[in-house]
């Protein structure tokens, strides 16, 4: 069978000695669309006009700056003597028969950690259920609309619409699909911030 069309984002967050490092990318149909290095997001595909892109890019930078500040504050109270590495992989696939599948998987230090179940907008544990760190992070992510229902809407609806707009018969509508691409990137970053803050608060303290 023909391969599905996919929009996917990868983001890595590394926390060490009170500082945070971010990097990642987004691909649309196997082609690089965005690159994240530090607090800077670059649009590789010319998907949005310069003015609109600058506004969206600034929103992503604000999220990352907020997270970095949180890490610096809490590192003074709960010093971390080792590195935490968080990886998020999210996106959607559109198959030739019109069906779609969305996903959001999280690993911590190279081990499967949490998965977002898109149909129910719930976070599911991948580490042992008794692990306090995973349980705490799951509970924190379930508190916010940005990391539950907003994320569900992007993955289950907006992301799939982006892919459907790539078909030749909808060529004239392609321009309408670009802005949600960046919305997805922002939501992805938002979820990472929520996740990583929860992990950081729990590590070295009481969950």
From TrEMBL:
GO CC terms, sorted: extracellular space
Entry superkingdom: Eukaryota
Organism: Odontophorus gujanensis
Protein name as it appears in the record: EPCR protein
Record-level GO BP terms: negative regulation of coagulation
Molecular functions (GO terms): signaling receptor activity
Residue stretches spanning the membrane: 179-201
Keywords, ordered alphabetically: Glycoprotein, Membrane, Transmembrane, Transmembrane helix
Keyword Transmembrane: yes
Record keyword DNA-binding present: no
InterPro entries for the chain: Endothetial_C_recpt (IPR015669), MHC_I-like_Ag-recog_sf (IPR037055), MHC_I/II-like_Ag-recog (IPR011162)
């Amino acid at each position: 069978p023909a391969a599905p069309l996919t929009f996917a984002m990868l983001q890595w967050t590394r926390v060490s000695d009170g500082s945070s490092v971010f990097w990642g990318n987004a691909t649309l149909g196997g082609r690089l669309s965005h690159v994240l290095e530090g607090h800077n997001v670059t649009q590789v595909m010319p998907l949005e006009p310069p003015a609109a892109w600058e506004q969206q890019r600034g929103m992503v930078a604000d999220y990352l700056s907020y997270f970095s500040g949180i890490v610096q504050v809490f590192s003074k109270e709960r010093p971390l003597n080792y590195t935490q590495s968080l990886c998020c992989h999210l996106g959607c696939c559109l198959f030739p028969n019109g069906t779609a599948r969305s996903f959001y998987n999280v690993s911590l230090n190279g081990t499967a950690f949490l998965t977002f179940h898109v149909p129910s907008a719930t976070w599911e544990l991948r580490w042992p259920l008794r692990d306090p760190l995973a349980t705490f992070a799951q509970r924190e992510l379930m508190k916010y609309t940005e990391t539950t229902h907003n994320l569900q809407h992007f993955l289950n609806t907006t992301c799939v619409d982006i892919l459907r707009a790539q078909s030749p018969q909808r060529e004239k509508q392609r321009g309408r699909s670009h802005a949600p691409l960046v919305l997805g990137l922002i939501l992805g970053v938002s979820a990472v911030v929520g996740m990583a803050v929860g992990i950081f608060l729990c590590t070295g303290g009481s969950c």
